[in-house]
TrEMBL record:
Family note: Belongs to the serine/threonine dehydratase family.
Name assigned to this protein: threonine ammonia-lyase
EC number: 4.3.1.19
BP-aspect Gene Ontology terms: isoleucine biosynthetic process; L-serine catabolic process
SUPFAM superfamilies named among the record's database cross-references: ACT-like, Tryptophan synthase beta subunit-like PLP-dependent enzymes
Source organism (scientific name): Haloferula rosea
Domain ACT-like: 336-408, 428-503
Phylogenetic placement of the source organism: Bacteria, Pseudomonadati, Verrucomicrobiota, Verrucomicrobiia, Verrucomicrobiales
EC class name: lyase
GO molecular function annotation: L-serine ammonia-lyase activity; threonine deaminase activity
Keyword annotations of the record: Amino-acid biosynthesis, Branched-chain amino acid biosynthesis, Isoleucine biosynthesis, Lyase, Pyridoxal phosphate
Cofactor: pyridoxal 5'-phosphate
Transmembrane regions: none
Amino acid sequence: MERHHDLPLDRRLRQETLLARERVYHFADPTPLEPLEWEGLDLWVKREDRSPIKAYKWRGACNRMSLLSDEEKERGVVTASAGNHAQGVALAACKLGVKARIHMPRSTPRVKQDAVAKLGGDLVRIILSGDSYDEAVASARDDEARSGAVYIHAYDDLHVMAGQATLADEVVLSGKGPFDVAYLQIGGGGMAAGVAEWLRTYWPDIELVGVEAEGQASMKAAIEAGTPVTLQELDIFCDGTAVRKAGELPFEILRNQLSRVETVTNNEVSAAIKTLWEGLRCISEPAGALGLAAALKNRDQLQGKRVLLVLCGANIDFLQLGHIAASQGAAARHQRTISVAIPETPGTMRQLLDRAFAGLNIADFQYGKVDGTDARPVFTLTSDHPEDLEALPQRLSEDGFAWQSLDGAIDVQFRAIPLRSDLLLHPLFLRLEFYERPGALHDFLHQQLPDDTNLCYFNYRQSGERIGRALIGLDFTTQAKLDHFLTELQPQGDGYRLCQPLDAEAADRLIATRTET
């Protein structure tokens, strides 16, 4: 009879998954499998965000720590984690009464640090080590060598992989299968390996697709090289899967089980997070939405197929969530960013809005006066109809406007809006609020600004709220005209409300800090 450690890795993994069934449910309950109706696709989402740690990592950590001997428990454990594995170790440490030291990168979101502290209590000590997961691992390994504590690996461990595979066991037992295809996100590969092996065991014909974010595709690089390799550059937008080198054991499983590995962009991940919110009213961390991002990318090929996705975590920093939501406000539609050359004369901006931009939505408007004769305002324009944006260059040319594409321009992304104070005569800066409806901004410019008013500054970005906010600068030829404008300007009108003008000190700071010589 073959001994357990003499068996091939895939057979050992299947055996350990069966044994993990008895262990993991002492710590938490199974998570739901829910349908996501979206664009005619038959999508099913394994809701690991509904676990005690809002991620799947409790499974592997609890399974591995359940195997600690009394002597190992006395020594304690040490690990490194970007957040979710740390919470799994903290959960197990608390229930088993084992002391744990958890090394986390200094950049770990506060929500994950707080969750680890809450789950582990006095038994867990958080040590912020380095600026990346790899630096935290190095620190934890040094700790292991010095202290003799047991190292609990986040993914490159047979028992951790088997624990993660219990989520696939729940899928098989749910009665919702069989599934035609499963999209499995990959960081180090522990979850993907355990799940892939279990799904293939029960549904041999299932298509298994690994998914990684661009800039952190360590498993794809490993498969192409024939062995795990270290990535030189690492994007950490999807922080839960930001691993420079795929695990050795997961690699041995996935190189044989995966049909392919796909990569998705951060913007595609953000769109998938938005889809999960709209379809299930749940919030995913970026890594948790990788699978859905790939599925949406392949929607045409998935018609008529039953698709399995794993929402592997929801531990997202609130500030990052705000950034994603803001970016998707415009990205949900087709968009393009352009700079348009217009003469620095009153009325030209209105002509541009009236004619070339008719029917388009202005999602972002940046402009500061830097030349006495020519202006180059920057617009991000969106539309539900891509053909309208495709026709924009021709419309601009027909109206005599030269333009330049600025999609992805760094200065636009960071809102670097120059403004020359020496070109201004009698400036006035106004804070304006208006309803986010088509034409509201256009109506204000038409109805409230005198024909001879020179627009010298505009800073507006669509935020997704029902109210839009803009900071605009107007320049008048005389002080008397400025005073008359303030006298006639109504505090609110059709679609807008005027916040008080900037005081002199704030206006001086704006001009001083935006000056370009």
